[in-house]
């Protein structure tokens, strides 16, 4: 009999994950319940109305009592309950297995146009951030496991997620760095569960863990699965006394005082990284594609002995680490990990063929659904989200091609660059590099399909546009086109009329808003980011919000058709 609770921020995808879990485990063996939907069933009232009529405190009391009744149920083999973001997780019984469900976009926030506002005196993103920062320590203290979902998982066809909930993960070749948070609850159970994942090593870093925590880990982890990393000068004597399977000595500490398995460097001077016997690990700041290529070629000079692990503040090189997984030392992360460039559990579980890969290129791309949307089409090869700025385009493309890039979806602000590369007559959002460079633009296809779903309107204005302007003009020829920078008509510099439909074509982080006198009925947002400024504008003007997700789906389908034809 298993009891599982899913916790996490608003909009992270707990409800849709519930339905996938039911598919993975079989409906006869599992009962899945969304607590908010259960509250609406029991009270015969909507969550929105409960908040409006009774307030948040009353809702939380109903929430707790409804969960308490569910917790008493004992007839199902497995019960999985998705809890609201504000649920008091300290009230979850200790014998329940709690999974903190996360997504990369948790840190950028989410704007909801169809859910009750809890702090209407704040902006939507300020409210999300305030609540998220308060809740995360509570989530971390109660979670038994943390599952980072990829953006855009919508069906139960992802083998990695299925493995997580059924037979278990197979993370062969990967190393997991232990964190202090792992010791907060049942550490022996934590290790017992993860030993089943076929990890190569658990890393014990003496600058991250206390002496007692390392000693406890050494007792529970087989020698063959323990990697002790020397990082803290004051702890060398204690660390030397421990019996482990492998060691990693940071050269910042000076010459090794042990016979290490690895020696590590954390600066960019590769000439300082040497040892007569140990393997060499360069975990270095990597600020550009030139830096990436330099490190990659250094590793390739002695591939059996060298490890190159690029580092960045925002995790932009996680795709490289996932792609170059033939190193003798590969790190993954269950939560934030010891570096944001470490692939997640599900990313590593997918076991891609690393000879070549496809990618979505642009800035920003961390919210992109393209990798999951095209995953099945390119299998067994991977599809990555790779941040490339306009200034980096000319240097990034040769590097990516050398590493194995064969197909690309291109987003703003790179569509003009792609047009030049493919010698096309209009901006390009789809590229193929073999046998030669060819490009296409599926924006018009996506826009036409999405436009057909917009309710009738009498006037329209396009806010922004960039590389999509030509496509928008073709689909919305009667619209007025307004510069998001000046707020004036692009063609004449005049003042636009207040429209019934605003087509939001500005960047998702656009600061300037349309004129205050605009009170549109509809906002069609070409972005589909949960934090898009177009969402915020629709919320402020009380307009009906139309997401660009339908357009994205149609574009992606057309991209696959283009690649298939070529």
Radius of gyration: 26 Å
Given as residue ranges, the uncertain stretches (5+ residues, pLDDT < 50) are none
Strand neighbour order, sheet with most strands: 12-11-10-9-8-7-6-13
Distance between the termini: 52 Å
Number of strands: 23
Arithmetic mean pLDDT: 93
CATH topology of the largest domain: TIM Barrel
Helix-residue proportion: 25-40%
Structural class of the secondary elements? alpha/beta
- The CATH superfamily of the largest domain is known as Aldolase class I
Largest sheet: number of strands, sense, barrel closure: 8 strands, parallel
**Tally of helical runs:** 20
Kindly estimate the percentage of residues that lie in beta strands according to DSSP: 15-25%
Number of domains: 4
CATH architecture verdict of the largest domain: Alpha-Beta Barrel
Question: What is the assembly state of the chains in this entry?
Answer: single chain
Q: What is the CATH level 1 assignment of the largest domain?
A: Alpha Beta
The global form is globular
